[in-house]
Amino acid sequence: MFSRSGLATVYSSYSRMKLFMLFVLLRLSHVDGAFISGSIKNIFGFGVNSFNIPVHAVEHVSQECIHHAKRGGCEFYDCLERRFPCGEKSYSVKFGKHFCSKITRHIDLFTPAGQRYMNVTNACLTSYYSDLYHNSSATCEQIKEVGVNGIVNCRDIQTAEYPTFCQFVADNTRVYWIIFDTMDLIKMITLNEPRVWRLLIEQGFECGTARLQKGVKEVIKVLKSTWDNLFR
Description:
By secondary structure, the protein is mainly α. The chain contains 14 helices and 2 strands, in the order αααβαααααβαααααα. A two-stranded antiparallel sheet has the order 1-2. Helix 5 packs antiparallel against helix 6.
């Protein structure tokens, strides 16, 4: 067994964070094995990484797609994927459209104010792509990066009824957890973006809802326990 100090010299802090994410996936081992395997490959970067290869636009800019982007329509993510095809692992398909469609399917479960908040949020997320969509080429990594910027920054949107994200969650906790379940937590982890991981933890503690806090505390407890056992 390597010593704590020995391994610390081998792994950077970012690599250790990747190990943390692996431990979460293993802890949630009831999830489909193929999904776990693919997630591990995403986190550690196994295989050929084609995400930084420029993808040239294969579809013309569409006014209909621009309209979808302005109103936060989920159809925009299909437009983005058609213009810059990145395949089944693309952010547009795996994350953008997935969460947008899930929100749309359950929109009636939100309070009326919650529905308005989610509509504004969806429009905020798609608005981040307004410039990139018009480019003649883009890498799949750029598409993901723009999407992550949207996730991080659109969390701070305000509406008349909900000046903060936490007030929105307090009134819509049940449906929020229908949309953001365990599988989707894993999806967010496999984005391999520390900014998103940090945001999830901050939301749990800042918003103060018992369920959010419990979920975050359980994840932290598992990570700490596994880390301590590994280097004991």
